[in-house]
Design goal:
The chain is an alpha+beta fold and about 750 residues long. The protein contains 25 helices and 16 strands.
């Protein structure tokens, strides 16, 4: 039998396995010996470079510097990535949309885009304007690479000496980067992006091109962008024709356009112009004699018909127009909006006056106020206290922690999942990892049992957190998404409002409950017409009917619970004497944010107070500071009582009396039921009926008509008709009110 291992006929193998094994062993041994020889040779070679003394110290320093430098480059690259992601060359196109805005009655409000004029080449811009701008904004513009380190250091020293910000450290390139790609929000993240984008701009464009971008894109006040549009707006002529005094005035607008605009504050504008003229002399561009004539003959501006332009609203409306008109191929547009200028003025005054009065003492730097009708129509929008100082719109772009005002969505989710306002919950909660919820004041809950509406009225944190665990935090997130609120993420403290939302988003979410559960997404555009007069967009025609995103019963129950917050909870300072007011306070940790969100049967309003840099305020709460601002605005906003009742609540006696008066005069009356036209009206409450009797009695007395004899109603002799046992008479408007605790049980929807 032949073995495959051997050749046939003999015992010699096909392969000399022993020889092969010896060759492999010898080859490996020789290779290892060669490696050792090379290593020994290398060690011997580098041994000659062994350093001692100061040479070794220098080598160590160089090595460590290289290591730290490499790590620094990695960090710089990581910081640069977000900035480079903001770079979009399409934003260099200016004036793409030219939009004229009208209020809902057809009166012109202002313009955006059409005042964005880049038609004048840099060669035709007067030398006086270029020098005035460089002398005031960036004297070393042609010497640095986007970031003026020397100028920034000089501004820092000057500001420290003055103990306030008197000089800016941003170069013209940095300002161009901010105008083109970033917002005006004051934050470290924005400044880092600004620095990297400045370096990128310097590497991509020449100094003359960057200067041209600056002259074309800078905001100059009055809704104008760019020096050509500003020259036409202020002087009624092209920038090519301006003199030295006019050039100095315009150069002074770059720092704070609205503050130094001549039609807003003429003395401040003149002082700023003289400062620019002094800068021209200090920089060596002009002599004192050359600027003397400009000082004696200041620039004269033309009249502007609309100095009180609602700039916060127009900025947001311009964004909405661009979103709606995208892809339609139309760029010269006239837009009718939802703004109410009287309400806008009331919103500005309520917010700004409150911050001026109490802001310094409590370290409140800014705020926002948004007012909608219950269907989402934006009637007023204030995004800060000074549009000229900062155009960052806090009402639409500032994502701030809503604090306890977010609990509205938690309790609404509970109502959707079988809970009722009277469901008993405990003031205690499980821990979530290492985190354990605390109530305001630091306690981890008393363990007491209470109805759900009472926990909400007292704004207790612990029950709200436990409720979010019971119903499921995923369901709370799903509800907020239905209401148009984005960015909420699952977390242990989600029920306490730990994720940022904008005041406008919050207003839309709350408005859904005021709208009986129908989606109330905020909107500001009614219709858009192109340059030919053709209607390219109409909200009534192009937008679908608002869907029912929350059951009406749930909305009514939530509205009743929100009423308890105002009547017997943390928002007593929001109470209105002429109608029902409902809402929720909110105070974040710090506190860094304070809120009040609430509504009547006509308007929904949201107030936020805080600081752009997230600096904590002192001794502020939503109920103590935001609610009074809301009350002040709402007291002015309601000019009559002829509006519906909040869904789920009974008509307010004052509104009932007003309806009776209108009916007696034969005028039109609004439904107070809070139902739609197809819904059935509610039965009149005892309080409303009693108020009507008093109005009728007063009218008969004024007309000299004798009172009718009272019929036998079978009521108790101790009280007026309609009064139940245990009720007491209110001193307000003569209405009958139940004893404490009875109204809550009897009026519960």
């Amino acid at each position: 039998m032949q073995d495959w291992f051997f050749k046939p006929g003999n015992r010699r193998p096909y392969i000399d396995w022993m020889g092969l094994d010896s060759r492999i062993d010898s080859t490996l041994a020789e290779s290892w010996a060669s490696v050792q020889d090379y290593c020994n040779a290398g060690t011997s070679f580098f041994a000659r470079f062994r350093l001692k003394g100061w040479r070794r110290l220098a080598n160590e320093v160089a090595s460590e510097s290289l290591t730290i430098g490499t790590a620094g480059l990695v960090v710089m690259f990581a910081l640069a990535i977000p900035a480079f992601q903001e770079f979009d060359e399409s934003r260099f196109l200016t004036g793409r949309y030219a939009v004229k805005f009208l209020d809902r009655n057809g009166n012109e409000l202002g313009k955006r885009g059409i005042l964005h004029n880049d038609a004048v080449p840099l060669e035709e811009i007067p030398d006086s304007l270029i020098k005035a701008t460089l002398a005031t904004e960036d004297r070393r513009f042609f010497e640095h690479w986007g970031i003026d380190v020397i100028g920034t250091a000089r501004a820092l020293v000057t500001n420290l000496q003055a103990n306030e910000v008197v000089q800016g450290g941003s170069s013209i390139t940095q300002q161009v980067a901010k105008n083109l790609f970033l917002s005006s929000e004051r934050s470290l993240q924005r400044k880092i992006k600004e620095a990297f984008l400045s370096l990128l701009l310097e590497s991509r464009f020449t100094k003359r091109e960057i200067l041209k971008f600056y002259f074309d894109r800078a905001y100059m006040g009055g809704g104008t962008f760019g020096v050509e549009a500003a020259s036409i707006y202020y002087f009624g002529k092209s920038v090519r024709q301006i003199n030295l005094a006019e050039a100095a005035l315009m150069a002074g607008l770059f720092k704070a356009p609205t503050r130094y605009a001549p039609h807003v504050n003429l003395p401040a504008s003149r002082a700023r112009t003289n400062e620019v003229l002094s800068n021209l002399v200090e920089a060596g561009f002009y002599t004192s004699g050359q600027v003397h004539h400009a000082r004696l003959n200041p620039a004269k501006t033309i009249e502007n018909n609309n100095p009180n332009s609602p700039d916060w609203f127009l900025d947001w409306a311009f964004e909405e127009v661009q979103r709606i008109a995208a892809g339609k191929g139309e760029y010269v547009l006239t837009t009718r909006t939802t703004i109410d200028l009287d309400l806008q003025k009331a919103a500005d005054e309520a917010l700004i006056s409150a911050i001026k009065r109490r802001g310094r003492a409590h370290r409140i730097g800014t705020g926002a106020l948004v007012a909608l009708e219950t269907d989402g129509a934006v009637r007023a929008l204030t995004g800060g206290t000074d549009y000229g100082q900062s155009q960052f719109n806090r009402a639409t772009h500032a994502k701030r922690q809503p604090g306890s005002s977010f609990k509205v969505y938690v309790y609404a989710t509970a109502l959707e999942n079988g809970f009722t306002p009277n469901s008993t919950i405990r003031d205690s909660s499980r821990s979530c990892g290492r985190w354990h919820p605390q109530n305001y004041g630091g306690s981890h809950g008393s363990g007491a049992r209470m109805p759900m509406y009472r926990a909400m009225a007292r704004s207790l944190n612990v029950p709200a957190v436990e409720l979010s665990f019971k119903v499921g935090r995923e369901k709370v997130i799903e509800l907020t998404q239905r209401l148009g609120i984005k960015g909420i993420r699952k977390s242990c403290s989600m029920a306490l409002g730990d994720r940022g939302i904008t005041p406008l988003e919050h207003a839309g979410g709350i408005a859904t409950f005021a709208n009986g559960g129908k989606l109330a997404r905020p909107y500001g555009i009614l219709d858009i017409v192109n340059s030919k007069g053709e209607l390219i967009y109409s909200r009534d025609r192009d937008e679908p009917e608002a869907p029912q995103v929350i059951k009406r019963k749930v909305a009514e129950q939530m509205n009743w619970m929100l009423q308890q917050v105002v009547e017997d909870g943390t928002a007593r300072r929001a109470q209105l004497g002429f109608t029902h007011a409902v809402g929720k306070t909110g105070t974040s940790t710090g506190p860094k944010d304070v809120w009040f969100v609430g509504f009547t049967g006509k308007y929904v309003a949201v107030v936020w107070l805080g600081n752009d840099n997230n600096r904590p305020m002192s001794g502020t709460t939503g109920g103590g500071y935001a609610a009074p601002i809301w009350n002040s605005f709402m007291s002015v906003a309601h000019k009559d009582m002829n509006f519906p009742t909040i869904p789920g609540l009974r008509p307010h006696p004052v509104q009932v009396a007003e309806q009776q008066r209108i009916a007696a005069l034969g005028g039109p009356r609004a439904s107070l039921s809070g139902r739609d036209e197809k819904g059935s009206s509610r039965l009149m409450s005892d309080a409303a009926r009693d108020a009507l009797r008093r109005v009728a009695r007063a009218m008969r007395k004024a007309a000299g008509i004798k009172e009718p004899e009272p019929a036998d109603t079978g009521t108790s002799p101790t009280g007026p008709p309609g009064r139940r046992a245990g009720e007491r008479r209110s001193t307000t408007f003569g209405a009958v009110q139940p004893r404490p605790g009875e109204a809550s049980r009897r009026a519960l929807p």
